[in-house]
Amino acid sequence: MTAAQPLPDPTTAAEEPAAATPEAPQREALYFALRNPKLIVGLSIVLLFLLVGLVVPPLLEHGPNERYAPPLLPPSGEHWFGTTQFGQDLFTQFAYGIRATFLVGLLGGGIAAVIGMTIGFVAGYKGGWVDEVLNMLTNVVLVLPTLAVLFIIAAYVDSYSVTTQSFFIGMTSWPWAARAVRSQALSLSSRDFVDLARLSGVRTWKIIVRDIAPNMSSYLFMTFILLFGGAVLAAAGLDFVGLGPSDGMSLGLIMHQAVKWGALQLGVWWWFVPPGLGITAIVGAMYIMNVGLDEVFNPKLREM
Amino acid sequence: MTLEVSDLQVYYRTLRGDVRALDGPTFGLADGEIMGLAGESGSGKSTLSKSLIRLDGRMRYIGGSVTLDGDEVPIWDDQAMNEFRYKRISLIPQYAMSAMNPTRKIGKMIAELLESRGVRFRDTRDELHRRLELVGLQRDVLDRYPLELSGGMKQRTVMVISTLLNPSLLIADEVTSALDVSTQRAVAETLVEFRDRRFVKSMIVVTHDISLVYQIADTIMVMYAGRLAEKASAKTIIEMPKHPYTKMLLDSLPEVGVKYEDKRLSGIPGSPPGLLKPPQGCRFRDRCPLADKQCLEQPPFVEVERDHHVACWKAE
Amino acid sequence: MLKFDRVTKVYKVGAFGGGSFTAVREASFEVRPGEVVSLIGESGSGKSTLGKMALRIASVSSGTITCDGTDVSTLRGHRRLKEYYRKVQGVFQDPFSSYNPVFKADRVFAMIRSEYHPGVSDAEWRDKVADALKVVRLDPDQVLGKYPHQLSGGQLQRMLLARALLLDIDYLVADEVISMLDASTRIDVLNLLADLKARGMGILFVTHDLALGNYISDQTVILHRGEIVERGVTSKVFADPRHPYTKKLFASVPQFHKKWDEVEAELRAREAADTSSQPYHLAEGQAVPSELVEVTEGHYVQPFHPRAAV
User: Fold this and answer.
1) Would you state the pLDDT for residue A4?
2) Strands of the sheet with C202-207, listed across from one edge
3) Is the predicted ipTM greater than 0.90, yes or no?
4) Residue A241, in any domain of the structure
């Protein structure tokens, strides 16, 4: 009787010593995560902005709406981003504005992500009538003219906070995520390893969380990034036309005021360029992060 | 027609170096010969068939020559190969039947293909109809979408298209693998008919299923790890193989009529070597029960009997 | 005994589920412990559907599947299904699809451990795994701790068999388990299945390859478009096929020492010799009944019209 002793394959990369337990993938993922340039650069940029938004405002002397400086000063040593028509320091406004931007992105994007992913997973995995009912729900919310609804709500309500704005944006932007997650979950659910998990007596929710979701982890993160970006842009849109939250400062609001007070015609570039670049940088950095994350999570891409 | 392949070396570029997928096969094909090219995964058979027509951009031509009807085939030059492809050498790639554009009617697709080769569809239409009927398809197939045809019908359509311009050499890469048993026979016999009617002069049928190729091929060539192991007439390979790999491979194949209780078959232990840094000498050395120090030197592919070539020091 | 009794599977197709498609119709056969039953058919024959129904991955439209007396086709509830899976497991065709690519291959063992043997100590589990791997002739150092893409198809399939052994099952559904492996490794896995049979496991071997069926099976079932056309003791079915479809299959299988023409000539000669009217021949216009007719002891065939084309 011949024993089947497979020879070591010389084309395989050297192995890290890892235990044969399921905790090991997380540790390995961390190892690779720390060595991926795209992930590190993207994450650094995002963290930098986050840091600015969190740490800087308490350190500043003046508030974002305080009119204390000479108007329309270009960037200088004292006013890093210059000043507005009303003598407000733009860097102060920028720092405070980042807070609102992150809040809307995280909260609005987060709510949309949670709702959309839950519905997407359940519809994709279960199929049948569950899928049909959820699809109908998704389609109904999808065809609602969200921006119009948001405009109407904003116009009727006297004042509302950034949190409320995030909530509304989250509740109206999840259908896209639900559809995207559903189609991926559907195709993954037909794979043999899902059947094998069923045959191993694993419960439905565990299969979704432990088997299906990790296979789409970069996809889920990408979905969240797009929802984050979408929320930021929707909020900026609302703020830009003057229908944003009545309290606080946001990057979109800065741009709104810049256009309202003729910064474009006056050539006051320091008023509208930094906030625009800020939004672009945050969302762009998150995209780069995602590409890096895909390489970290997918062992096959790693060996390249 | 004659085909001479001499010391062909084709490697694949990868990030970690060159994979020596094809390392020096030398053989000839006579007029009217159907040669079965057999081997397992990683043997180099698909690389050989694709390199004869230069289809894969990742392949790097290293050396050797291919001569068809006395003309040197420029397999290192993508542009120059355009003259040969489809007109003189034609390939039916693996998965060809799944590669048809699902949004195009078949007739339209053929017309576009011919135009791209500089041939007017109108000129070949009659011949096309004749051949479709020959393989058992109605001419209204041209008005259908690929989705409407069964696997066997699609494969036969692809075969007709590939041979429409009467190439000297046809290479059929795993054309029966995805088909049902009953259709496999029909498709295989169609290949033979193409040769008998001189639509193509000679054929190389690439497959992993030796029993199938035994049914239709005149000769069989066995490849292992990028090199040739043995070539002889189909009957000789099946009944009197000389290379240890061929012998062990044939011994591992269950056949109708053989039962486990009567004759226990066994596989070949181990697995083929990685071709990034292949072992020195004979590549089958690590798995061969007859191997010894002599095998550290690559055995030449020589004719040990009339029309029977083997690459093994131990072949008797 | 794993018994299939008039099992039928109907799928709803078309927009809003208006149409229906019968994948399997009234299939009846048995798998006994220590026996291999080959389920042979081409694509669209319903063989994989039967395997999936046995594993309760697909539901049964009508008919029953009983495992040692218990009706499993209507089992409800997670707990009862889990108990069933202690007795019956499956291995599928594509080894690389059966493993979750983001995890290491041996996670399939860990899943069994956490669901079925939660209290077992690390050392004890390690021994159990090593024993199971030894039966399937794999070296633990070679296969543990590796990702699926670092292992070969043959190793992956064997690991799935080892996984089934960890549960100490009675019946195995092997669905085209070797068709995606290389020729030289196929036979090793096939021999392994024969060893498992010798240990007392009942195996439902689903395949399209007649030669494989012949090699290890005791009983053969031939499926055509969802219906069983012939079944019985393997040696009888292979030596003396009666149904026209079975004969067509045999005529098309490429063999090593006979060309197609020879095989066909043999079959036709036998047919010409047998001109008598058989109990399974139908007259013109008679409908095909669902019960198979006995040819000889242990060999059954579905009645057919002698002159109809297959």
Assistant:
1) 34
2) C88-91, C171-175, C202-207, C36-40, C219-224, C227-233, C299-301, C293-296
3) no
4) yes
Q: What is the pLDDT of residues B93-138, one digit of tens each?
A: 777 777 788 888 988 988 988 888 888 888 888 889 999 988 888 8
- What ranges do the domains of chain B cover? 3-98+168-310
Q: What does the DSSP assignment read for B218-255?
A: SEEEEEETTEEEEEEEHHHHHHS--SHHHHHHHHT---
State the Cα–Cα distance between residues C154 and C187, nearest whole angstrom.
10
Query: Of B130, B15, B10, B125, which Cα lies nearest the Cα of B60?
Result: B10
Out of A6, A11, A304, whose CB is closest to B270? A6
Give the residue from chain B lying closest to A10, CA to CA. B274
Q: Alpha-carbon distance B57 to B78, whole Å?
A: 9
Rounded mean pLDDT, B295-312: 89
**A42 located within any domain:** yes
Q: Calculate the alpha carbon distances from A129 to A134, A177, B271 in Å.
A: 9, 20, 48
Residues A154-212 pLDDT 10s: 778 777 788 888 888 898 889 989 999 999 999 998 889 999 999 998 888 888 888 88
C301: which strand partners? C230, C293
Q: What is the distance between the alpha carbons of residues A191 and C281, in angstroms, rounded to a whole number?
A: 43
Chain C residues within an 8 Å CB radius of B209: 254
Separation of alpha carbons B275 and B224, rounded Å: 11
Which tokens sit at C173? Answer: 């559904």
What is the number of structural domains in chain A? 1
- C178 touches C186 (CB < 8 A): yes
Running DSSP on this structure, what letter comes out for residue A83?
A: B
Q: What does the block give as tokens for C9?
A: 């599977």
Q: What is the dihedral of CA C234, C237, C239, C240, to 10 degrees?
A: 160
Chains meeting C at 3+ CB pairs closer than 8 A? Answer: A, B
Residues 196-225 of B with CB under 8 A from C: 208-212, 214-215
Instruction: Enumerate residues 6+ apart whose C-beta is below 8 A from B263.
Output: none
Higher pLDDT, A243 or C243: C243
Decide if C222 contacts C230 (C-beta within 8 A): yes
| CB contact at 8 A, C169 and C86 | yes
Asked if residues A295 and A36 have their Cβ atoms less than 8 Å apart, the reply is yes
- Nearest beta carbon to residue B269 from set A3, A10, A304: A3
Q: What is the DSSP letter of C294?
A: E
Rounded distance, CA C217 to CA C197, Å? 10
Do the Cβ atoms of B252 and C214 come within 8 Å? no
> Which residues on A lie below 8 Å from B271 (Cβ)?
6-7, 9
C16 falls in which pLDDT band (50, 70, 90)? low
In whole angstroms, what is the distance from residue A21 CA to residue B159 CA? Answer: 51
Distance CA C300, CA C292 (A): 6
Structural domains of chain C ordered from first start: 2-87+169-301 (3.40.50.300)
C-alpha triplet B303, B306, B307: angle, nearest 5° = 70
Class of domain B3-98+168-310: alpha beta
Whole-number Å distance between alpha carbons of B106 and A127: 35
Does residue A12 fall inside a structural domain?
no
- C-alpha–C-alpha distance, residues A183 and C43, integer Å: 26
What tokens appear for B131 in the block? 């051949």
Q: Which residue numbers in chain A have pLDDT < 70?
A: 1-29, 297-304
Kindly state whether residue A87 falls inside one of the protein's structural domains: yes
End-to-end CA distance of chain B: 32
Both tokens assigned to C41:
């058919």
pLDDT, position B169? 93
Residue of A nearest to B273 (CA): A9
CA-nearest residue to B279 within chain A is: A10
Q: What is the CATH number of the domain that holds A136?
A: 1.10.3720.10
Tokens of C134: 């030894």
